[in-house]
TrEMBL record:
Function as written in the Swiss-Prot or TrEMBL entry: Required for nicotinamide riboside transport across the inner membrane.
Organism of origin: Roseimaritima multifibrata
Family statement: Belongs to the nicotinamide ribonucleoside (NR) uptake permease (TC 4.B.1) family.
Ribonucleoprotein recorded as keyword: no
Gene it is expressed from: pnuC
Protein location: Cell membrane
Name of the protein this chain belongs to: Nicotinamide riboside transporter PnuC
Length: 193
C-alpha cells in the first residue's frame, strides 16, 4: 500500500457515497480516483483495469454532463429501470466483451489474471454507462464487478484497493436498495398524478 493507492481509495469511497445520494459531485470526485488508479494499475500490470480507467476519464465527463442537464439539478434525481430485453443485451455484451478482451490480453500482453481482469473491465464499463443514464440495474453490475475485483486485488496484494472494493460492494448493495425505493416512490407519484 502506498500514498497513491490510499488517496485513490479515499476518493473512491467518497465517490460511491455521493453516487448513492445522487449528488452530481460524484463525478469530479470519481475523476480524481480514476486518474490515480491509472498509475496503480500500470504498476500492477493489470492492463485491462488500466484501459478501463483511461476510458473512465471520458465517462466521468459524460456522466457529469448527463447529470447536470435540466432535470439533474435537484437532490431527487430521477432514476429509471431497464426493460428485460435491454438487460439481456447488456449481459450479452458483458459476456462477449469479457471473452474477447481476456483472450486479447492473454495472447498479446503479459497481463496478470487476464480473464478476471477483463470481466471487471467490461462489466464496469456497462455499469458506468447504466449509472450515467441513471438505470437502477447499474448497481447489480457493480456488485458483480466488486466480487471479482476483491479476489483480483487481494491476489495482486493491492490490499487497500481490495478493502475499498469490499466497501464498494457493501455500498453498491445499499445503493441498489435506495435507488429501488426511489424508483418505487417515483412510480407511486406517477400513478397518483
Amino acid at each position: 500500500m502506498n500514498l497513491i493507492e490510499l488517496t485513490a481509495t479515499g476518493f473512491g469511497f467518497l465517490c460511491v457515497l455521493l453516487t448513492i445520494r445522487r449528488s452530481v459531485w460524484c463525478w469530479p470526485t470519481g475523476l480524481i480516483q480514476v486518474l490515480l488508479f491509472i498509475i496503480i494499475f500500470y504498476n500492477a500490470k493489470l492492463y485491462s483495469d488500466l484501459l478501463l480507467h483511461v476510458i473512465y476519464v471520458f465517462l466521468q465527463f459524460y456522466g457529469w454532463y448527463h447529470w447536470t442537464r435540466v432535470d439533474a439539478g435537484n437532490r431527487n434525481l430521477v432514476v429509471k429501470s431497464l426493460a428485460i430485453p435491454w438487460l439481456g443485451c447488456w449481459l450479452a455484451v458483458t459476456t462477449a466483451g469479457t471473452i474477447g478482451l481476456g483472450l486479447a490480453m492473454a495472447l498479446w500482453t503479459d497481463a496478470s489474471l487476464p480473464y478476471p481482469d477483463a470481466f471487471t473491465t467490461v462489466a464496469s464499463l456497462v455499469a458506468q454507462i447504466l449509472l450515467a443514464r441513471r438505470y437502477v440495474q447499474n448497481w447489480g453490475f457493480w456488485i458483480c464487478v466488486d466480487v471479482v475485483a476483491i479476489w483480483v486485488y487481494f491476489t495482486k496484494e493491492l490490499n487497500a484497493t481490495a478493502v475499498l472494493y469490499i466497501t464498494f460492494m457493501i455500498l453498491a448493495s445499499v445503493g441498489l436498495v435506495i435507488w429501488k425505493k426511489q424508483l418505487a416512490k417515483q412510480r407511486t407519484n406517477e400513478v397518483a398524478a
